[in-house]
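User: quick one, fold this
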Amino acid sequence: MAVRVLIVDDSGFFRRRLSEIISLDPFITVVGVAENGQQAIDQVKQLKPDVITMDIEMPVMDGITAVRKIMTIQPTPILMLSTWTTDGAKSTLDALDAGAIDYLPKRFEDISTDNTIVHQLLCQRIHKLAKSKPNKTVMKQTTNSHVIPTIVVSEKPTKQVEMPINLVAIGTSTGGPVALQKVLTQLPANFP
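Assistant:
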């Protein structure tokens, strides 16, 4: 069964280019396109895609607002594709915080000058996202800042620790930026 994709971007050229690239994979089907976040929400309700590719800056409704709304009505894996979605960019963190699962730069030249590599990477990400179904409850937590995230801590270490702990590492995934904010803001000011 083919992965059903909704493409959301205000550029007609980019929508066509992305459709052409994705359509090269026989196991991915573009079921719809939208020019802005509001159209995306309407089409998500109607088409129920498996994966959504989403731009950030669009007229009528931006991508981050659309992601938040989609996660409350029809949680769907979302791949952000934007000139602004690069590692460390605030908009990338905002998009992930809103419920997006992954991101790629919209300028495919930033990925590779080889179109075959771009096609493979994009299609691999779409297939991977199609297998990861967002949980509606978890996504509602990411959009509601007063919900306290659940933090799991092992009470029994697997081996005896003889030295003081000098480093604490926290790993996060989908919904992680909100949980991380909650944890870090509750640590005492003198926490080393």
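User: anything notable?
Assistant: The chain has seven helices and five strands.
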